[in-house]
Amino acid sequence: MKDKIERSREIISEKLDLPKDVILNLPKITIVGNEEITIENHKGIILFERNIIKINTKVKIINIEGENFEILYIGDSTITISGKFKLISYEV
């Protein structure tokens, strides 16, 4: 049943030209250079260390590797992190 609802939302999003990240609660990742990243619609922090961060999302876990990470902002569904990013990937 959930798959049917998700598919219906996706179709509505496409037909009405609405942003999928809002309608489907998908992660939206905004990167500024290699020094700041904002992830919207996250589901929590799994791991936070100075050189690796793992963020849970509806889709998959986002891995961020680099150095000197610092949380600039954290809210219910948005997080902004600063540091020097070397790799950003989805966990398989």
Model description:
This protein has 92 residues and is of the alpha+beta class. The chain has one domain (26-90): Immunoglobulin-like. The protein has two helices and six strands; from the N terminus they run ααββββββ. A six-stranded antiparallel sheet has the order 1-2-6-5-4-3, with no helix packed on it. Strand 5 and strand 6 (78-90) form a beta hairpin. The longest helix is centred in the N-terminal third of the chain and has 14 residues, at 2-15.
- Average the pLDDT over all residues and give the rounded result: 87
Domains counted in the coordinates: how many? Answer: 1
Order of helices and strands: HHEEEEEE
Q: Tell me the CATH architecture.
A: Sandwich
Shape: elongated
Largest sheet: 6 strands, antiparallel
> Number of helix segments?
2
Q: Would you identify the regions where 5 or more consecutive residues have pLDDT less than 50?
A: none
The CATH class is identified as Mainly Beta
CATH fold assignment: Immunoglobulin-like
Strand order across the biggest sheet? 1-2-6-5-4-3
Binned strand content: over 45%
Main structural class = alpha+beta
Number of strands: 6
Percent of residues in helices comes to 10-25%
What's the Cα radius of gyration?
15 Å
* End-to-end gap: 25 Å
Short description:
The chain has 92 residues and is an alpha+beta fold. 20% of the residues lie in helices and 53% in strands.
